[in-house]
Each structure stands twice: as C-alpha cells, then as structure tokens.
Amino acid sequence: MQAAFAAIASIFGGGSAAATAAGAAGTTGATAAGLSGAQTLVSVLSAIGTLGAGFASAQADKDQANAVELQAGQDKVQDTQRQTQMKRTLLQVLGDNDVTFASAGIDITGGIAQDARQTASKRAADELTIDRRDSDFRAALAKMRAQGYRRRASSTVGGALLGAAGGLLNTQIDIGQRGGASPASSDPWAGMRIAS
Predict the structure, then answer these.
(1) What is the pLDDT, as a whole number, of residue 35?
(2) What angle separates helix 111-178 from helix 2-103, to the nearest 10 degrees?
(3) Which of 17, 153, 161, 166 could bond 61 through an S-S bridge, CB–CB 3.0 to 4.6 Å?
(4) Given phi > 0 = left and psi -120 to 50 = alpha, else beta, which region is 137?
(5) Do the Cβ atoms of 121 and 33 come closer than 8 Å?
(6) Neighbour tally for 14: CB within 10 Å
C-alpha cells in the first residue's frame, strides 16, 4: 500500500510528494491501529451492555417466578380456609337438621333423619373433593409457571453470554481481516490477566 502511494506521488510531484505520501501511509497505519483499538473498546462495551441486559431480564423472570410462588402460597391458605368453612357449614347444617328432627319428635339415629344426614354428608364430601382437586390443579399450574420463568431466566443468561462472546469474536475477526492488530495482541482482557 505504501509503495503504491509512493509511486503515485512520484508521478505527480517528484521526491517531496513521495516523502509526503510515505508520511501519509504511516499516518494511515497509525489510524488503522487506533480504529482497531476503538472498535475493540466498543465491542467490549457492547458485550458488557448485552450481559447487563441479559442479567436484568433474567432477574425480572426470577422475580416473577417468586411472585407466582408467593401467590400460590396465598391461594393455598385461602383454599384451606374455604374448605374449613365448608366443613363448618356442614356441621351447622347437620346440627340444625338434628334439632329440627328432634323437635318434631323424630329419632335422629335412624330413618329419615339418618338418611338426611348421610345425604348432606355425601354432598359436602363431594364438594370438598372437587374443591381440593381444583386447589391442587391451581397449585400445580402455578408451580409450572414458576419453573417456566426460571427456565426462561437461565436461557436469557445463556443467550446474553453467547451474544457477548459472539460480538467480541466478530470484532476480532473483522480486525484480523482488515489487517489490524492480531487477535492475540488486541486481547481486550490482556491488561486484566494476572501474570503467572
């Protein structure tokens, strides 16, 4: 490249032009090295930004997983309270029925009173079973959602690491193709390595 500048300069301007062209070629080499260094710095900053965004997004997903788990815990408490209230209501209904039958002079240990008690107990047991299954299903769904958020957080971190590494590698390849500093000499971590 320098020889080409020198040849062109000698055609148009003689010796002084050739000297000027050689100086310009030296300046071009220094500029290329400076641009390579700047490109490496920008690449490192971009990689840091990619990692920062990835970690922030992953933390948001982890926070959302924690929120889902907390809500599932609150739902479980509410489900238990509701089921306890259903049992209390059953006991209240059975007691009221016993009082009604007894006040009418009907034996509460058999016959129609016993049939009414068994029917009410079976209906309440069925409702409790349905409620428990519904509660268990919602708890399992919340657990799956929380696990999904955690998997997404892990994938986000992995993607950020790959993106940052790919950006740094791409910059080094680009610098090498332009004839800038070699990847070994422009290692962005070289100044941070501990000598052994």
Answers:
(1) 63
(2) 180
(3) 153
(4) alpha
(5) no
(6) 10
Q: How far apart are CA 104 and CA 182, in angstroms?
A: 103
Question: Of 193, 186, 190, 159, whose CA–CA distance to 171 is shortest?
Answer: 186
- DSSP of 124-146: HHHHHHHHHHHHHHHHHHHHHHH
- Percentage helix, strand, coil for the chain under 3-state DSSP, each rounded to 5: 90, 0, 10
- The DSSP 8-state label assigned to residue 190 in this structure reads G
Which residues in the chain come in under a pLDDT of 70?
Answer: 1-35, 179-196
- Count of alpha carbons within 13 angstroms of residue 123, beta-carbon side: 11
Please give the pLDDT value at position 33.
56
Residue 144 tokens read as: 């799956």
The predicted structure's pLDDT at residue 59? 94
Q: In angstroms, how far apart are the furthest CA atoms of the chain?
A: 134
Alpha-carbon distance of 59 to 38, in angstroms, equals: 31
How high is the pLDDT of residue 23? Answer: 45
What span, in angstroms and rounded, lies between the C-alpha atoms of 165 and 161? 6
On whether the pTM is more than 0.85, the answer is: no
In this predicted structure, what is the pLDDT of residue 172?
Answer: 86
3 state DSSP class of 189: coil
Q: Which helix (H) or strand (E) holds 187?
A: none
Instruction: Pick left, alpha or beta for residue 179 (phi over 0 → left; psi -120 to 50 → alpha; otherwise beta).
Output: left
57 closest CA partner among 145, 155, 143, 142 = 155
